[in-house]
Every structure is written in C-alpha cells, then in structure tokens.
User: What shape does this take?
Amino acid sequence: MYFESLLKEFSADRFPYAGESFHPEKTAVISAREMVAVAIKNDDFICDCISLEIDRLSLNKFSSGLIPFYTIPDLGISFALGYWSPGGAVGPHEHTAWTITAVCSNKLEVIIYDRDESYRTNSLVPKRRFEGLSGMTGSIYEPCIHDPRNTTNDWSLTFHATSPLDGLRPADRPEPLNCLTSEYTISPELAVHPYLKVIAARQKIQFVNQLVKKLLTINTPKARSVLIKCLDVCSISTRNELKAYLGKSIIENISPKLLLQVTDPKLELQCHCENNMVTLSVMTPKSLLQVLALNTIAKEAMIYAVHERAFDPEQLPGDLTKQERYALAEALEETGLFKRINN
Ligand SMILES: [Fe+2]
Assistant: This one.
C-alpha cells in the first residue's frame, strides 16, 4: 500500500508520541509535507485513502468536521478526507498545531488572517488570500487562523494529516477569539434522536458519490477494486452509474437484489395526500419535516413503503412501471429515511 509507505515519514524519531505536549521540529513537518505533495499525485495513494475512507463510512456514523480514516496508534497523528459541497465553508477557525492539507479534487479558496492583529483587535484581520488547486499541498506549523471555502459549483475533496495537539489551546492564547467558529456540536436532543441516522445516511450517500467520482477518473485495476468495494455502500443511483462502468454481471454477482428498509426502526414517518400530491414527512427533534412530495400516482407505493418499512422496489404496488418503482426507491433512499440493505 502506498499509504503505508507515507506513514513511515511520520516516525517516532521525528514526531512526538501521543500524549506528549511538545511539537515536532518544523523540518519534520516540511519533510512530511513534501512526501504528501508527491503522494497526492499518485493514483495508488488516492485509492488507498478512499478504500480506508469507505471502511469508515460503512460504520454509518454521523460526522461533523474531519473524522480520521486512520490514526497512527503510537503518535496520534490522524488522516482524514474533507468534503466541501458547492459554496461550502466551515467558517474561520484556528489551528493550534501543525497540519498538512492537500487538494484531491477541484479547489478551495483560503483566507489567512493576521493572528496577532486579530487577537489584539478582537476581530478578524485578513492578511492574504490564495487558491488551493487540485494537486496542491500546504502545511501549517505555527498557530494560524484561516477560512477555507469552496467558491465553485462543484464538490471539492481534500486530504488532511493532523497533529494530535491541534485544537488544544496554546500557551500564548489560552482563550480563543469569540468570532472564530467553534467545533460544531449537535444538540443533545438530536444526539439521541433517530433522525440523526437520517442525516448520517444522506451524508454517506453524498460522500460516497464524491469518492466514486474521484475513482472514476483513475483507470487502474486498484481503482476498479475500490469501486467494487463502493458497491456495498453507495446509493442506488450511483450503483446504476457503476453498472455501465464495471459491467452489469459484476454488480449482480456481488449484490443481486435491492432491498430498502427504514434507516432507524424508531423513525416516525407520515404520508399525506392532498391536491394531487402525496407527501412524506418525518418527525425531527423540533417538528414534523416534509422531505418528499410526489404526484399521487406514487400514493399507493409510498403508503406501502411507509407501512411495511422494508421493501423490494419491484414489489411496490400501484400503476407504476418498473423504472418508476426504482425511481421511487431511489428518491426514498436519497431522503435518508430508507437505506439499502445488502441481500
Ligand atoms: Fe483548517
């Protein structure tokens, strides 16, 4: 694995052990950044990272921020992929230890703030702006405030290697600036609510789509084997795209039957019919939320899906063609209320 060869660059003789409170020498971070800069242009490395990320996404956990797909046990250094939706941003934030970032797809615009001036004036003071283009790698060593954002209409994908000390308050600034984005946390109500699984399911569909899109740009046997791995976690619509690429027989041998079931058995779902429309709503921690509205031609099938809570798309009742049944199954899966189960 190419990824394993990169790990050798993060050795204990150059980086502190996890739990230690000092930082590595700057030369160690620069040397690791140079290795990442080479790796990010290597198709095998990208495939290795995506393969590990698919394992992480298979756990179906909601993620906010960068969730590592791998952490070096002794050193606590973590590796993650970042997904940036069109126009997406996390807001200005501070890194308090070294981090290495590379752009795998598309680009990001990054605004760097003058940290000393920002703390002195208790406001964000911009210093410079740059574009991180696909294939570019950068690093932070000294504490830094920045605001990366995707200003394009397409998704961007990034790779991150991060110190275990990042996020801990440095001695020079024990309190963060008020105007910085603090770590996103979900409300205690949502944390224990079945609707969280719906958000996680939608997120997984979007993230796997981006990984598949990246893999489809790589024409190697390794990329093909990782794409086959994606079949277990991707959405019905992505699966259909892969059918054309991998061949129908491969897909049908691996996952012959499509079945959908409600994402969490405790979800409260409701169907309503009015004005020639059938709507599907779900109870969230705050209120009833409408997530889908279709022509009443889908009424019988939608009521069946909500009532049965697990179904074979071909068994959906009503005056629908086979394509329409699958289109409805696809729409239900994209709401996050239903998930594909492997049969
Ligand atoms: Fe950052």
